[in-house]
Every structure is written in C-alpha cells, then in structure tokens.
C-alpha cells in the first residue's frame, strides 16, 4: 500500500486535471473518467485519513450473489432449453483472442476493446462479442455447416449504465446457423427463437423489428448518398431509436456532409413501418425499384414474412426501415427485439424510488442479430465464404427486469435445493448426525447438518425456515434406541417416526413433487 | 495486415535473437518463447509468401468443440449435483479484479498473473484462482457465514502442457465453507465431497493426501529451520511429488542454505505416511511433541480421521507429511487428491500413439484445497477474520481423461438432444414441414428440419443417422390427405401412420425413456 503523503499529493494533482478539463469544456465522458480516478484516490485514504484498500469490483462489473445466481440460472435454463429444442450444439472459445483476430471487425467500436498488457509473447485482447470468435472457429476448423449456441461473457470498455443493465463485462447468449441453405429458412428460425424466448420469459409485450442491409444500402443509393458514405450514414440512422429525426438529419447534413435533399428523401423512407404489404409496396416504388440490391432485400423480406406466418409469429414482427444496427459485418436481414411496455414492476419501483421513468422503463433492445455472409471469409486464407445468420439475447437487461420482479414479489427465492436437515434434539449426537447424513448423501439426497458439536434444536429449526428446507430428520436418545428418526415437516410442524430402513424412500417420496 | 518486406525483415532479426540466446545457453523457456515468436512471424507469410492471418487460439488456450462440450457438461453436472447435494449456494465474480486485490496473495507465483493494458482508468488483472475473489467478496459484503460453489475460468501465464491438461486458461470448480464452526466438521465434509466426486466420475483408483500447515511449521521448527525460511523450505518440500528426496535435499542445502543436519531430520519426517495411528505416534514423538503448533495440527488430524471414519472414506485418505501445497494462504489442514493407477485408456493410447508412458499416465493432482483462516482478514479494513476451508476440483485434467476415454469407446457421443426430424417424401412441402415443426416446438419437442426447399428423403434420413436422431415425422401428399404423419423409427426403420391429433403425445411417449 502506498504512503499517505504520496496519495494526498496524487489527489491534489488529479483535482487539477479535473478542473482543467472542466474549464476547457471537455466531453462529459472524459471528465467522468478523471473524476472516477479522483474518487478512487480519495477512497484509499478512508474515513480516518489512513491508507486503505479499495474493496470493490472493477468499474462496470459486478458480483452475482446467490439470489441473483438463482435468477440467472432460471433465465439461462429457459434460453438453453429453447436453443436445444431447435437442435443446436454448443461450443466454447477462450475469453481472449489474438489481438489481430478482432482487428477490423467492429468499425468505430474497436476503441472499446480491452487489450492485455504485453508481458512477452502474443498480443491479446478480451473478446468483444461471440460472433467474431465463432467465425474464427469455423475458418480455423474448416467447418461449413453448424447450428451452435454459445453462452459466455464478453467485454467492452463502454460507459456503463448499470441500473439499466449495461455493463463492461456481460453475458451474451448467441444462437447461429452457418451453412449454404435456401433463402430465409434459417433466418425465420432465428426470429421464431426470439419469439419463443421472450414469450417464455414473460417480460411483457415486445416487438421484433426487421430490416435488411441491402434495403438500407439500396435506399441510400437511390436517395443520392455517395457510396463511401453508406456506412457512416447507416450509423446515424441507427440512432433513430434514441434521437429525433430532426437531430438525426442535422447530424447527416452538418457532420456527415450529406445534401439536405438526400437527407429528406431518407427521412421519408425511414418513417415507414409495416409487414409484407410494405415490402410489396416498396417493390413497386418508382425510386426504390431502381436498386437491384433493394429489390433483392425486399423480396427476401416478403419470403421471410411468409415463413413467419407459418410459425404464427407475425403479430410481433414489424418491417421497420429505420432499423440499421451498429455492427459492420451484417450483409442481409437484420433484426432487433424491444420490450414495448413499462412492466408493472418498473412502474412500482419508480413510485418507490422516485427514479426517472425513462430510466427504469426503457431497457432498450433485449435481442438482436442478422445475417453476416462475409465474416468467416475474412478469416479464410482463400476467402471461402460460409453464410451465417444468428441472434444474440441481451441477457443482462433481462436479468435487471427479472431481479426487479423478484424484489417486488412476496415470494422468496430459494438459493439452495436442500431437502432435509439432519438435526439432533440432545447433546453429544454429532457422530450420529454425521453417520446419518453420510447415508443420505450417498443415496443422492440433498442434506445439510450444522457444523456444531451441540447445536440447539431451535436454531436448527430456525435455519430450516430461513433457508426454505422443507424437512428435518431429528435424532434423539429415544429415536436411536427405537431405530427410528423423527421426520418433521417444517411448514406444518407435523412430526412422525420413520424407521431407519424406510427413511430414504420416505424422504424421496415427500420431496419428489 | 503488414507488408511482406516488413515481415521478412522481422523474421531475419528474430532469427538472430534466437541464435544469440542459444549461443548464450539461455533457459529453454526463454528460447522456446522466442522461437514461438519466430514461427508466428513465418506463419504470416504463408505458403505462397503472401501475408496471412495467423488462425489460432492464444498460447495455452483451446476451443471446445460440441463433442468436448458434451463431455464437459456431463462432468460439470456430476460436480454441481454433488455441491448442491451438500447444500451449497453459488456466486459469480468478474473475470478481472483490481490489480491490488491480487497483490501479495500468491507468493512466488505472482509473476504468472495476467495484467490488462493500462487504457486509462483502473489497473486490472485476470483472476488467478477463485479463492482470492471469494475472500474479497466476503469482506466487501461483510459475510461471515456461507457455503458456496463457484465454477469459472482462471488464468495463469504458466508454461502450458496441454496434453496433460495444463492450460493457461482453465476451469476451477471450487466449494468453500466460510464461518466460525467447531473444529474439522466442515473440513471433513470437503474431503467427503472429493471422495464422492472422484467416485462418481469413475476415473479409477485415487488417494487423498492430507497434512496440516501447522504440522509442517512445527516440524520445521523442531528440525532447526530458521523462522524466516519456513515458506521457502515448504516450497521445496512441495516438489517431492516430482523430484527425488536427494534432489530436494540438494535444493534445501545448496540453494536455500539449510544445514545438512536439519535437512536430514526433515527427510525422516517427510517419508512418513499413515492414518490416525501415525498422528497418535507423532504426538508421542519426543521432538515433534515439543512444538505446540505441531500438536494442535496432529490433534486435528486425529479428529478429522474420526469424522472421516463416520463418512466411510478413510480407505482413500492418507496422512502424508510430505504434502506441502504451493499457495501461501493456507493456515491449517491441506489436502490433495491424485489418481493412483494408469487407466486402461491411457495404456491403450500409449500403445497406439507410442507416447511416453509417464506423459499419458501422470495427470497429477485432480483436486486440492485446505483451510485458509487469514485470507478474508487481509481484505477487511479492521482485519476481522472469517475462517474458511475449501476444495478445488482440477477439472481440466479430468476432461483430458474423459476425452481419452470417449475416444477409445465405440459409443458415439451425441452433441444434441433432438428427438425428431420433420421430413418430407415429396417436393414442394416446405410450408407443411415448417407448420408442423412449429407445432412441435411449441409443444416443447426438440425437433429439426432441413433448411432446403426440396431435400431428398434419403439425405434427411442420413442426417438422422449421423446425428443420432431417433424419430422422423414424414409428410407426403397421401399423409396430408389422410390427416396423418408417417412416424419412422430410425434404428428399426419401422413406420406407422399417426393421426395429427395424436402425434405430440405419441412422440413424447416414445422419447420419454
């Protein structure tokens, strides 16, 4: 630990850095970063001015306590069950990749990648998503067909907004189909999966927006956007869910140098929403129909809706020309699922905490994905293409909602599955308790014993109530003499003597429900 | 990607680095590291001398393919089932910690910690184990009682030996009991858990070695080791499983400066192995009994064996005075489980591959742990102690063995759980297939359909054979007219018409087994 005077010196100079940035009207992000450093230094001094350990997790990360883990497990199980229902295998890749594997895949977002320190050897970076490692895996193993899911943590040096479920370390749950198949069949399955998962998780009403990169590019072309501005204008369109059209237009014209006329034409298109009918109308649109790319995208959207009708999911799906998605690697259909209603829970929380309604309600997109037919080829020495389409479930935002729900609910979340506590009614029965619990464990029964030589019966029973353990096996002198165990139901306090020979089957019978 | 000439220049100068190191007789480790860099550079040139991407995972890491994941899932399920049977909750912590959280916890091994690059903000390191993050979690949340398991990846910049299951990124499966309890009860449960898991995984015979840091320290004291040399002599003793006593003695005397007499006395003790009787004998030993610490440790070993007898696990447990364990933070009982026989599989593999017998047989320790009563206090501003004891299952070595077993077995590992394939016997039935599979998914049935408009029946049936899918639902013109589906059993080729109304219950009935 550092010396007190040294830290006080560091606080002083860090304070000056912050003041300087403020006077220079630096970006909020930059100032926040420096203020955080200042606070970290101050925390080292502690209340009494003594040097202290900073006891925290890194910025933008969190621990999961047992209750949060129980919720997490439930959500994961729902998602994995769905992925398995659709026949997916699973793979895993390392948490870090060679730095060059990630280079050139994320456009402007590359600055958010965590690099490892150069300690000799290879240059490494933490994975930014699961899609690029998947593409690297396919190319490296020359796999041309696979349907796989991958659930793992990814890392982004982003500005965290943890109350809304935005972290620097967060889980992604990805399902992808790689292979050369007939158009829109795997794509439709991805949307069916989003529909199934959001339905099962019961998070309230939702919409799945659908668009196609080829429609966007075609639209940009017929509106007079120069070729080299497609990607940057696309990034601006992507902000329509957070900014008004006026602001988006301003950015296009003032910052990106687009003509006002072109921007206005884009503005007309990106306000359009509909279903298969909209795709049909746009195929007749005198401007849009001039773009071959747009027509290919629109025909595929029509086909997609046809398959989605067979899956009975079109009630939640909207063809939305304003959907752009940030990532560079998409080449065809893209989609994003958003929750559309403030859940009852958020409203309640808001009333309780006086939190900003926007903050607690808009958890943003909870799933997204699309087709990326070119990514695997970027890794193949001969550029061989493996067409891919996939979806990523934004699990952290879903956790946030589920946690709020659990907190608002009177029901208690159990964090263990213990079926029975082995207890004693008198002193000096530790050995008998250990012998009995060993028998139960060997029979596959989930059991606990208190780690005391002579625990009080009351404290053993209280522990059961707190932990939600339904049964207690009580040993006493009399029970040992009679060759029985007193089986107590915690909820009803009902007790019955069971012979040692029948105990295991009796516990199994009572806890099987 | 870099320019060809630039890379050739780099290869040339790297070649000189290697030559220089060799001429200077540098360490093998150092030379290997530089040779690896040279090979990586050469790989960039590719066969045709064009610049190329290096398509690999970072040194010491690996991907898990679907088959390996199926094995991993099976092993994890066995372990988690055991942890849950013993009433453990689970937590999770971030993959990286503040650098200072890890500082001063691992002794000489600290050099193996991965640091993140300083990109502004906090200094971070990848976790080295799950124990230190657990202690940080307890101190930060002021938790004084918990029984938790944690399964996650940890990171060590070690020299990988991947054929023997030693990686730089690897899983740990930790179970720990924190709290002030009566002596040796939680400690005995940890050993019972190791016994249960190794039994269930069916890896062949094993031994669990037990010792106590207090016995080691007491032994060092009575043998005349100076106080300040306890930890370093302990590290040398720890090498007895890999080095002969002669070499260990040499290191003690020549490198660590211990007197020959003291070394010889230690040599007598560390050759001792036994059970409760050995602990009793040593309590009477005229030298050992002079150390209060040693006596406290020996009494606890006696108590431990008493509890282990009640658990019926003493057949596998050995009190072994040569067991030292590397980590600094242990304060009481320590243990380590090793597989004691070359499994039939390794022998078979060896014959096939001509591999070194030692290599394929000695997978080393598969579990280890001990008591660390001081670690949590290191994180508490007021130094409050939370006694802890725990065990870590060395899962990668277990994976290696299970993978070898699976490869040697004629049985096929299934990587999905698909119950039925929805197929068609004629052309133009895609819509009917999609409609039917949607019904099956909605009923919770695991089903697949081929992503082709008009797949051949034969290729659909072949896919089922390869993937181990037991049933096929075949649609044809006639079946559609009759309102039935032809249900085919892949193994027997038996076919039967089932009405659409009964299909779901029939599939469930047939796949419930």
Automatic annotation (TrEMBL), chains A, B:
Its EC number is 6.1.1.21. It comes from the Eukaryota. Keywords: Aminoacyl-tRNA synthetase, ATP-binding, Cytoplasm, Ligase, Nucleotide-binding, Protein biosynthesis. GO terms for biological process: histidyl-tRNA aminoacylation; mitochondrial translation. Residues 60-410 form the Aminoacyl-transfer RNA synthetases class-II family profile domain. It catalyses: tRNA(His) + L-histidine + ATP = L-histidyl-tRNA(His) + AMP + diphosphate + H(+). The keyword S-adenosyl-L-methionine does not apply. Residues 3-59 form the WHEP-TRS domain. It holds the Pfam family WHEP-TRS. CDD domains: HisRS-like_core, HisRS_anticodon, HisRS_RNA. It is an enzyme of class 6 (ligase). GO terms for cellular component: cytosol; mitochondrion. GO terms for molecular function: ATP binding; histidine-tRNA ligase activity; identical protein binding; RNA binding. Belongs to the class-II aminoacyl-tRNA synthetase family. HAMAP family: His_tRNA_synth (MF_00127). This is histidine--tRNA ligase. It comes from Pundamilia nyererei. The lineage of its organism: Eukaryota, Metazoa, Chordata, Craniata, Vertebrata.
């Amino acid at each position: 630990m550092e010396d007190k005077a040294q830290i006080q010196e560091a606080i002083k100079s860090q304070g000056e850095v912050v003041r300087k940035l403020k006077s220079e009207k630096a970006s909020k992000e930059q100032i926040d970063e420096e203020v955080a450093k200042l606070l970290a230094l101050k925390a080292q001094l502690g209340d009494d001015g003594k040097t202290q350990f900073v006891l925290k997790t890194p910025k933008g990360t969190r621990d999961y306590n047992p209750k949060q883990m129980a919720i997490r497990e439930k959500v994961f199980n729902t998602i994995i069950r769905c992925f398995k229902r659709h026949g997916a295998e699973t793979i895993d890749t390392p948490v870090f990749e060679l730095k060059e594997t990630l280079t050139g895949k994320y456009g402007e977002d590359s600055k958010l990648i965590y690099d490892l320190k150069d300690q000799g050897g290879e240059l490494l970076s933490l994975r930014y998503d699961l899609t690029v490692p998947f593409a690297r895996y396919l190319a490296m193993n020359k796999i041309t067909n696979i349907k796989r899911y991958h659930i793992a943590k990814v890392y982004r040096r982003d500005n965290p907004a943890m109350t809304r479920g935005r972290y620097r370390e967060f889980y992604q749950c990805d399902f992808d189909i790689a292979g050369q198949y007939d158009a829109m069949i795997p794509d439709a399955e991805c949307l069916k999966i989003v529909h199934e998962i959001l339905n099962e998780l019961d998070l309230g009403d939702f919409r799945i927006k659908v668009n196609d990169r080829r429609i966007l590019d075609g639209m940009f072309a017929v509106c007079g956007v120069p070729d080299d501005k497609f990607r940057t204008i696309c990034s601006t369109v992507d902000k329509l869910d957070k900014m008004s059209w006026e602001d988006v237009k301003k950015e296009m014209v003032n910052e990106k140098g687009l003509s006002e006329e072109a921007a206005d034409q884009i503005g007309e298109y990106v306000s359009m929403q509909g279903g298969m009918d909209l795709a049909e109308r746009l195929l007749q649109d005198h401007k849009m129909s001039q773009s071959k790319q747009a027509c290919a995208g629109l025909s595929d959207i029509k086909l997609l809706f046809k398959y989605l009708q067979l899956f009975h999911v079109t009630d939640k799906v909207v063809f939305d020309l304003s959907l752009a998605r940030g990532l560079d690697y998409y080449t065809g259909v893209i989609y994003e699922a958003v929750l559309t209603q403030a859940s009852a829970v958020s409203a309640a929380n808001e009333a309780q905490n006086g939190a900003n309604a926007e903050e607690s309600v808009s958890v943003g997109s909870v799933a997204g994905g699309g087709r990326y037919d070119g990514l695997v080829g970027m890794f193949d020495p001969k550029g061989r293409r493996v067409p891919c389409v996939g979806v990523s479930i934004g699990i952290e935002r879903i956790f946030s909602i589920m946690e709020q729900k659990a907190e608002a609910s009177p029901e208690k979340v159990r964090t263990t599955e213990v079926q029975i506590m082995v207890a004693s009614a008198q002193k000096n029965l530790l050995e008998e308790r250990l012998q009995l619990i060993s028998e139960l464990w060997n029979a596959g029964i989930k059991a606990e014993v208190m780690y005391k030589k002579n625990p009080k019966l009351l404290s053993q029973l209280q522990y059961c109530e707190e932990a939600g353990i339904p049964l207690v096996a009580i040993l006493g002198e009399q029970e040992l003499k009679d060759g029985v165990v007193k089986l107590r139901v915690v909820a009803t306090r009902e007790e019955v003597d069971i012979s040692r020979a029948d105990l295991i089957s009796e516990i199994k019978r009572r806890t099987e429900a």
